[in-house]
Design goal:
The protein has 193 residues and is mainly α. Helices cover 78% and strands 0% of the residues. It is built from nine helices and no strands. The radius of gyration is 54 Å and the shape is rod-shaped.
């Protein structure tokens, strides 16, 4: 029991010595105590070489580096987050500008498409008008005497109208085809409007 008491008192004496030593070190050299905390938060503690030589080798072994280690600290992480936030804001504004530009381009393209549709419709109507004019010229230039045909059909009601008016049936057939084309074109919805 005496040996156990002596051992306990020795442990208590050593604990008191360690506590007093830690208090003295925290008073005289606070950088040795605060260095691990500073490293944790991204700061590199700066110590001169002569201070390193005088310090305890076990406590100084953690300070061998010159601050070039790549352990991410709190401040570097915060700086990186701020930088990323600024980059995201820039990218967001760029995306908004691109979206606005695309919307304006889409509006202009829709307007141009509508104009092109109207031009195509007008072109189609003009083609039909030109075809009407062409077919009308064919009918008028067919060499048929429409007045004679009209008078002959009014005088005698039998089937000898074409014979008495001296009508070539080929000219009459071509004229009838042209008249059919003209009627079809006149019934087209675009020409009616």
């Amino acid at each position: 029991q005496q040996k156990a008491k002596d051992a306990l008192s020795e442990v208590d004496r050593k604990l008191a010595l360690v506590e007093s030593l830690s208090e003295r070190i925290s008073r005289e050299k606070p950088e040795h105590v605060a260095a691990p905390l500073l490293k944790l938060h991204g700061f590199t503690p700066f110590m001169n070489m002569d201070e390193r030589g005088r310090g305890d080798s076990s406590s100084m072994s953690m300070f061998k580096g010159t601050g070039t280690e790549t352990s991410p600290g709190l401040t570097s992480t915060l700086d990186r987050c701020d930088r990323l936030a600024r980059q995201s804001q820039v990218l967001d504004s760029v995306a908004n500008r691109v979206e606005t530009t695309l919307e304006r381009g889409l509006g202009r393209m829709n307007c141009a498409t509508e104009k092109l549709e109207r031009v195509l419709e007008t072109s189609q109507v003009l083609k039909m008008v030109m075809r009407l004019k062409f077919e009308a010229k064919k009918v008028l230039g067919s060499g048929l005497d429409f007045e004679t045909l009209e008078n002959a059909s009014g005088d005698d009601g039998d089937g000898d109208v074409y014979h008495t008016a001296h009508v070539d049936l080929r000219d009459l057939t071509r004229a009838a085809a042209s008249v059919a084309v003209i009627e079809e074109l006149l019934n087209h919805k675009d020409l009616k409007n």
